[in-house]
TrEMBL record, chains A, B:
Keywords linked to the UniProt accession: DNA-binding, Transcription, Transcription regulation
Protein's UniProt name: Winged helix-turn-helix transcriptional regulator
Gene3D superfamilies given in the database record: Winged helix-like DNA-binding domain superfamily/Winged helix DNA-binding domain (1.10.10.10)
Domain HTH marR-type: 15-151
SUPFAM superfamilies attached to this UniProt entry: Winged helix' DNA-binding domain
GO biological process: response to stress
Listed InterPro entries: HTH_MarR-typ (IPR000835), MarR/SlyA-like (IPR039422), Tscrpt_reg_MarR-type_CS (IPR023187), WH-like_DNA-bd_sf (IPR036388), WH_DNA-bd_sf (IPR036390)
Organism annotation: Paenarthrobacter nitroguajacolicus
Coiled coil (residue ranges): none
An example molecular function term from Gene Ontology annotations: DNA-binding transcription factor activity
Amino acid sequence: MGPQSTEVETPRLAEAKIGNDVGLLLAKLHATGSLLNNKALADYGLRERSFSVLTLACSGLEPTQRELADFLSLDPSQVVSLVDDLEHRGLVKRAQGKQDRRAKIIVSTAEGRRIHNKARAALEVCEQTQLAGLSEDENAQLRALLKKALWG
Amino acid sequence: MGPQSTEVETPRLAEAKIGNDVGLLLAKLHATGSLLNNKALADYGLRERSFSVLTLACSGLEPTQRELADFLSLDPSQVVSLVDDLEHRGLVKRAQGKQDRRAKIIVSTAEGRRIHNKARAALEVCEQTQLAGLSEDENAQLRALLKKALWG
DNA sequence: AAACAATCGTTGACTTTTTCAATGATCCGT
DNA sequence: ACGGATCATTGAAAAAGTCAACGATTGTTT
């Protein structure tokens, strides 16, 4: 993997016009973020993916696995693995779909919500670390722009 | 992988507070972007990764493979594969490091720059597609914020 | 209502990507 | 000149991603 240093890099290459390529900027920020996030989530036996699933399970929106796959840009079979893992550890349950008996709704258990709260707190620290260079306003701006880019 | 639809999704789950998780927003935007980018780059036998390497090789910055690995958050062995591929196709060359004879400097060939120009144009179209929901100003803002988050 | 195609979750096979340890060559500090 | 560190490279192992098929169920068409 790349650099695991906690110190800030001062990359000579950042000058390249590649620094204007949104795709690369996203990839890089996502990569460094994932590293930090996964490290923080390891304390709870979670990774970015399983945390996302757990978050949706805790949201009260009662997502189906298909919705999870679509929303997280995953193959349905990957969702099966993620839910299997979380279910075996008692953090979520599969419930039968209400209108559609093929679908399974993923809901959190009390233990799942407990773990999720702790993990979420740890992630917030991570996020602040990663976005330390941004002011509070800029932080909010970034969120807003990302959301807008994703779904108008 | 997830949905390959060109139509805009209107995801029920976007409401979840997960929509404020920068990590997930980055992951999702990066995922959908990669899909588009790789599809566009396929015409030139490139992918996001190899395009990034080619871009740096064309930048005149004469990056070493180690610098590429750090900058792109890749394992050094992955850079070997990427450069191998580009070199076999005559798009880049390995040159000996100037101060450090261990290091190898990656520079583009004329053909590499030709392909890169074409690919870059194709990617710009992609980018506009992906960020269609953003105004010109917001587009620039997003770039600026991502860069600032990465290196102050 | 019977037949049909489509969708959901799941499984398993397969490919690609990532991760990691080891190696020879070279650099740097002492 | 010695020892430790860094560079590119290799190869193996682990993880992630892709894809086709299946039973169960749904919605649609006849």
